[in-house]
Amino acid sequence: MGDTTEPDSLRKPRWRDRIGTTLDVIRANPTGRIALKVFVGLAGLLVVAVGALLIPLPGPGWLIVLGGLGIWAIEFSWARKLLQFTRRNLQIWTRWVTRQSWSVRIMLGLVGMVFVGVVVWLSVLVSFDLNLVTTVLDYFATH
């Protein structure tokens, strides 16, 4: 008889099995099912809200939003579908970018940096009523 077990590289980690079993036990009880939905909904909302606040700043704002979407995907099918859509399109974008020449990649990077710079400039301008461009130009003019 042949070995029917999967190789280690194809097997899910043990902790994933434990989490799945725990979630199944919680979902088996009507009160647990409602409590789990409420907990997952609030935890996902908190993470998405923090990520949304961080989007205008340089850093992992979008990654945090996707993490919150991943939390929602534990219990909500619409979040699973949106997360799958996002992953699929991100993979398509990544494959497209990697097929491009270095000059196109550099141009995309520069456009991205200009976009982030404009978002930071606008965020500081709106939040603190401080125009970074004129402040920096004034600083260099006086020194």
Short description:
The protein has 143 residues and is mainly alpha-helical. The chain contains six helices and no strands.
Radius of gyration: 23 Å
Write down the overall mean pLDDT.
88
Strand content: under 5%
Distance between the termini: 82 Å
Largest sheet: none
User: Helix and strand string, N-terminal first?
Assistant: HHHHHH
**Uncertain spans:** none
Shape field? flat
Q: What proportion of the residues is helical, as a percent range?
A: over 70%
Protein name: TIGR02611 family protein
Transmembrane segments: 34-55, 61-83, 104-128
Keywords: Membrane, Transmembrane, Transmembrane helix
Pfam families: PGPGW
Topology, pairings included?
Elements: H1 14-28, H2 30-54, H3 61-72, H4 77-99, H5 102-128, H6 132-142
Helix pairs in contact: 1-2, 2-3, 3-4
List keywords for this structure.
mainly alpha, 6 helices, 143 residues
How would you describe what is shown here?
This is TIGR02611 family protein. InterPro entries: CHP02611, Uncharacterised_PGPGW_TM. The chain crosses the membrane at residues 34-55, 61-83, 104-128. Keywords: Membrane, Transmembrane, Transmembrane helix. With 143 residues, this protein is mostly helical. 79% of the residues lie in helices and 0% in strands. The chain folds into two domains: 1-99, no CATH class; 100-143. Helix 1 (14-28) packs across helix 2 and helix 2 packs antiparallel against helix 3.
